[in-house]
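The authors assume throughout that readers already know how a fold can be written as discrete tokens. In essence, backbone conformation is discretised, so a fold becomes a row of integers matching the chain in length. A single example would do more here than another paragraph of explanation. For illustration, here is how one protein appears when written out as sequence plus structure tokens:

…
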Amino acid sequence: MRKTDLSSLKEAAPRVAITMGDAAGIGAEVVLKACSQEFLRHLAKIVIVGDAQFLLEFAHRFGLYSDFLIVDSVKELEGLDKPAVYDLKNLPLDVEMGRPSAICGKASAEYIEAAVDLWKCGVIDAVVTAPISKKSLFMAGYQYPGHTEFLAKLSGVQRVAMSFFVENLRVALLSTHLSLSDAIKLVKKENLIEFILFTNKELGKFFPRKIKIAVAGLNPHASEEGLFGREEREEIEPAVRHCRESYGLEVYGPFSPDTIFLRAFRGEFDVVIACYHDQATIAVKCLSFGKGVNVTLGLPFIRTSVDHGTAFDIAGKSVADPGSMIEAIKTAASLVLMQKEARSLT
């Protein structure tokens, strides 16, 4: 992310809803630890969407931040500046930590639904999500592979995509959770043209200028002009050329995948399009492990998330690192301001 004037963030203070995630995981812990950071409470008006009793008991047990107002209606949130818990009261007194369950799956789904409802009511500017368990979600009867698809359904959009932000590096993923062989089959000219246009439209919302897009090659060294594969010459290069010549986009590539992410990290490009999941996530996590932020492109609101899972193995021990949650909240607040600024200048 570009550096943002913290004084302007404090002035504007976007209201950010943070879902608690799966109660049996580390979601509540990383949320509470993040909220203990005073500077974050200046950057955003925080609304945790979860179960107040669970959060307060967890906070008191481990000495974590607990100075929240507890509200259960949209009206109570209007004009509220102090951190608050939007209380759904949907958890039992005792939650078994570290294990998937239908109870926690249902509760985590309801937090997501409530956060989207708050956005529809106009009382929040962005949504930050703590990790959920896909197994718990399925056990509760929710047939979504994850947050992204669930949020798309709730907000009524068809086209969404996963991206990761870490400092200056932004990476958009052509495909996500597919086998490598299936992901390679999607590296086609038509798919790439559509995705380049989509990425330009969605990320362009945060800039008052044309964005500069790099496309990573699929093969080693972007195939060395066809020596190590045909996808670059037959699919990627024609897609890039078409978007540049027919739509006037500042898009370039394909570039060697082993260098383009570092080049973008250093500020040469605004975003890199990755051909498959691990091509993106290995770069992001190696450059800044635990600081990456998942940003969903295509939603009608800003949504960020941590780049880790529920970590059931350490849940309930107060040893989880809140770094990614802190970055997710910072990024959400910054993106709200960037979007407002871009709109005012275009």
About this structure: Residues 174-288 form a domain with the Isopropylmalate Dehydrogenase fold (CATH 3.40.718.10). The chain has two domains: 1-160+298-346, 174-288.
